[in-house]
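Hello again, I could really use a second opinion on something today. I've been puzzling over a protein and I'd love to understand its fold better. I'm sending you its amino acid sequence along with the backbone structure tokens. It would help a lot if you went through both lines with me. I've dropped the whole record in just underneath, so have a look.
***
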Amino acid sequence: MKRSMTALAVLGVLAAGCSSANGSTGGDVLRFAAVPAEQNIDPTAEYKDIIALIEKNTGKKVEFVRSTDYNAVIEGMVSGKIDLAEFGPLSYVLAKSNGAKITPIASMVEKGGKPTYQSYGIVPATSKITDINGFKGAKVCFVDPGSTSGYLFPSQGLMSSGIDPKTGVDPVMAGGHDNSVLSVASGKCDAGFAENAMVDHILIDKGKLQAGQVKVVWKSAPIPMSPVAMRDALPADVKAKLTQTFTKDATKDRMVQLGVCKDADSCRVTADSSIWGFQPVTDATFDPVRQVCAATHNEKCSKA
């Protein structure tokens, strides 16, 4: 896997932190990494509740590592510098295929919702484009090459319409699902891709997007929800406590009962406020992502 400068910078910080603390990961500190779907948020605030729950259940201090680069989280897990990570489905698959010794614990879910989500293909409300065929030759916003709903599944959609995602469009990597949507809404991109929640309610609820400002012209097949995975080399008792945390306690209702959150409305289990909790998963849960990797001949899905 090609390492980006951002990934290397984050790993350098992690390595420095390891040597100054315990000499290696583990000990009294758990390093928890995530790539928020939005670039313009304060991740420390968004993840404070789930961090508090992890610390309560494990007795460990949690160091949160925020990265804007999927490669940084993948590389951190491969090198053992990160203990616990919130992945996108594709970045989890890439971490495994590149040698990370990790086990998925659970994936996100909305209350009463399905354990899947979708990628949307969107255009400005005034656009004459009516379906994904119209993306040919257009300036198209993607999220990141390591994004499941912001690149991998969109690539499959484009290829199914005979459009090469690299040469059949003018690709732009927006860096976040929010940036992709807002770039389309403002006309900076003719079309774009993002996760459904970002289009349906997240940006609208925050007042950053008007309802109807963009229109959905394509939807992907269902995608497994994003998982949390832990490093296999962690002590058995820590892994047991983390499994308990995410499969039993990491729901808004339970976190209120445990005194971690004041109420369910303000409680956060991840950066997306619509996510109610987590449900158990296995590695096989993400086989549909591997199938799309194979179908699109995505080079990032291959082992380094």
